[in-house]
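call fold(seq) -> tokens
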Amino acid sequence: MDNQFEFVDYLVFVLYACLILGIGLWVSRPKKGEIKTAENYFLASKSLPWWAVGASLIAANISAEQFIGMSGSGYKVGLAIASYEWMAAITLIIVGKFFLPIFIEKGLYTIPEFVAKRFSERLKTILAVFWISLYVFVNIASVLYLGSLALETIIGIPMVYGVIGLSLFAASYSLYGGLSAVAWTDVVQVVFLVFGGLLTTYLALNAVSGGEGVLAGFSKIYNEAPDRFAMILDESNPEYSNLPGIAVLVGGMWVANLYYWGFNQYIIQRTLAAKSLKESQKGILLAAGLKLVIPLIVVIPGIAAYVMTHDPEVMSNLGELGQQNLPTMESPDKSYPWLLQILPAGLKGLAFAALTAAIVSSLASMLNSTSTIFTMDIYKPYFNKKASDKQLVRTGRMSAAGALIIGAIIAPLLGGIDQAFQFIQEYTGVVSPGILAVFMLGLFWKKATSRAAIIGVLSSIPIAMYFKIGSKGWIDNLLFVDLPFLHQMGLTTLLTMLVIVIASLGQNKGADDEKGIEINSSTFKTTRGFNIGAFAIILCLVALYALFWK
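ret:
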């Protein structure tokens, strides 16, 4: 057996691809006499039920950066990287209760649109440019790179061809159908993603135990690599700079999570497309529950791969195939592709379909959101204020295609990145603190002004880069501190908020801004079902941290 797919693997994968394309194109078909409107293309006609919202949130979130990058971090760091997933669960509950009521009440298409209504068109444009740049040059490019890396490792497809293939797959239905096609294919993608991912985890743990079962496998990796199950790292750990101890619970990780889940277009767009606020909140709750199990799919396999590659008996059982494309501490991102290549025929195709589902669904989501921001926040207000629905939809498709082409060109240039998931988090963290500061004060502090918000968001970049100088060793001087990047994000957010507060008080002499949002206790009232579900998720989260707290 070699690392090439067998016929049954190709068959499984082709059936999966045909299913996704078929659903995407079927959902996208125009009804007789119907003209696709901007609301239909960008927000799925605001018709998504709660289970589609929840599934689409997970499908948009879980991508190659989790399967490949987070498994790589699991190999190198361990379960501590799962904090990004488990802390996301409680973050989603906060977003559902405190952010969504305001966003949906204002009838938003895009997150920058909120900025225009709360602050000004000028700030909206600045943030729109930030987001488009981030999506194209970091998110889309990294997803394509990591996805093509998997293709290259598992079935030997050269990276350039992998990038082209993934691009065409995602574009084939998302550019034509818009959010409807993306969201409804996401429902199917999540099934492949979760069950295919769990299958890979099961087989990896079974292999570790020598065929004695998944529980025996988990026990073995826990006993042989206890350091990989520490949720809270101490300063002696070489990965402390990436996951600085208790800060993952009370520090900068809140910046990463609140920004990503609350103010990230390709995430929040799903909730804006729900039938109602209650449906959106139920979808949020479903996604939060699924986040608790995601580490089983994307982190545990990395730890299993670490134990397997350091166990001579297991490696001898794998034979020659197990010696190919081995992950190492220098190249941990090979761990998940390596696991896939040693799976039996048929199951390899299913697991690979799960990985592809994660890649393509996220890529399609990013393309749709990039086109939404460009069309609604750049093209319409600055180039064609009276644009028809037909013109808006056409512009959305063209801008998505342009973003995809640029991302595809950049993707192969990302080779050699160590722990891609950490790389993405770190450089997203240059932009996210300023955006989070603007939104948090804009939502909950009526005195925040437009001028102050602009000053704050522009100052956040040099503040963030100041903290990068010491940590990256660019200048060896006592003026530049060396801090873990989560600390950098937390401090940048606090300093940016301070700048906005000072500038706002100076401008309006302490008076409320005329665009300040009126909120009261009824604004954030949620159903009994939501409250019970949220409480259950929080209890599970506490139990998990209590179990693995070291």
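The CA atoms of residues 89 and 275 lie 22 Å apart.
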